[in-house]
Design brief:
GO biological process, one term: lysine biosynthetic process via diaminopimelate
Number of strands: 18
Number of domains: 2
EC number: 5.1.1.7
Structural class: alpha+beta
Bound molecules: 2,6-diaminopimelic acid
Oligomer: single chain
Subcellular location: Cytoplasm
Largest sheet: 18 strands, mixed
Number of helices: 4
Subunit structure: Homodimer.
CATH class of the largest domain: Alpha Beta
Shape: globular
Strand content: 35-45%
Keywords: Amino-acid biosynthesis, Cytoplasm, Isomerase, Lysine biosynthesis
CATH superfamily of the largest domain: Diaminopimelate Epimerase, Chain A, domain 1
CATH topology of the largest domain: Diaminopimelate Epimerase, Chain A, domain 1
Length: 276
């Protein structure tokens, strides 16, 4: 069986994009694991499929992580889907409405070629994350085998926790990230951000992604970090986020408003994946 795909990335967070409207796709964990394999498949952090849109949306997108788990949001991937749709049909409007499990997203192509995505309002209620806690808080103390750690937690349509560190370069991303990803208080697992606050308008961030491990960038992770730090009044409404793969600009005016994430989307190649 052969499947046409497009390889794309958002500042190094890479994706296989498949148009499931024009070809039959067996949307499954097995497909994601096979195509995401960097030796036996194409290789990617996430598999993203494009489906027919309804109620005015140009399309619907769905996300599977490298390990086959379903994700409700993918910020870098959403920008790539918007760029893919505009390349596929230049007559599509700007901005573009794209639906996902996290709701309706609005993507606007900016004059500088970046894409600004309105990805919804951060959700701090524990039940929405989901995170086991009695009520929302700006800080939580998480018990570990050898002590405890201060975290923030929020959903951007997918679950995120944040650890503030003095230096991202020294952060124990691989070990602590893996531990927190599967902490029992996150019943659906969690993406783990490590943030170094440079100023009220700039942070550095590394992310251990649920279902992948550390990635070069995480759009929903950058959004989650700014939301948590904004809730703590540690940063202003607009923050530059520097990740290992590149830079994103995040703006959030506060409760009751959607969060905006601006960044690039890059085509790498188009191909055909032959698999049994
Ligand atoms: N690993 C994430 C999905 C991809 C998020 C990331 N690639 C982004 O750009 O937001 C999860 O399981 O929720």
């Amino acid at each position: 069986m052969s499947i046409r795909f497009t390889k794309m990335h958002g500042i190094g967070n890479d994706f296989v994009i498949i148009d499931a409207r024009s070809q039959p796709v067996d949307w499954s964990a097995e497909l994601a694991e096979q195509i995401a394999d960097r030796h036996f498949g194409v290789g990617c952090d996430q598999l993203i499929t494009i489906h027919a849109g309804t109620d005015g949306a140009a399309a619907r997108y769905r996300i599977l992580n490298q390990d086959g788990s379903v994700a409700g949001q993918c910020g870098n991937g959403l920008r790539c889907v918007a760029a893919w749709l505009w390349r596929d049909n230049p007559a599509l409007p700007n901005p573009l409405l794209i639906d996902g499990d996290a709701g309706r997203m609005v993507c606007e192509r900016l004059a500088d070629g970046r894409i600004r995505a309105a990805i919804g309002e951060p959700m701090f209620a524990p039940a929405q994350i989901p995170f086991m806690a009695d009520e929302p808080a700006a800080h939580y103390l998480l018990e570990l085998a050898d002590g405890s750690i201060d975290i923030g937690a929020v959903s951007m349509g997918n679950p995120h926790c944040l650890v503030v560190v003095p230096s991202v370069d020294q952060a124990p991303v691989a070990t602590l990230g893996a531990l927190l990803e599967r902490h029992p208080r996150f019943p659906d697992r969690v993406n783990v951000g490590f943030a170094e606050v440079v100023s009220r308008a700039a942070i550095r961030l590394r992310v251990f992604e649920r279902g992948v491990g550390e990635t070069l960038a995480c759009g929903s992770g950058a959004s989650a970090a700014v939301a948590i730090l904004r809730q703590r009044d540690v940063v202003d409404a607009t923050v530059g986020v520097d990740l290992p793969g590149g830079h994103l600009d995040i703006s959030w005016a506060g409760p009751g408003s959607t969060l905006l994430m601006s960044g690039p989307a890059q085509f790498v190649f188009d191909g055909i994946w032959n698999h049994d």
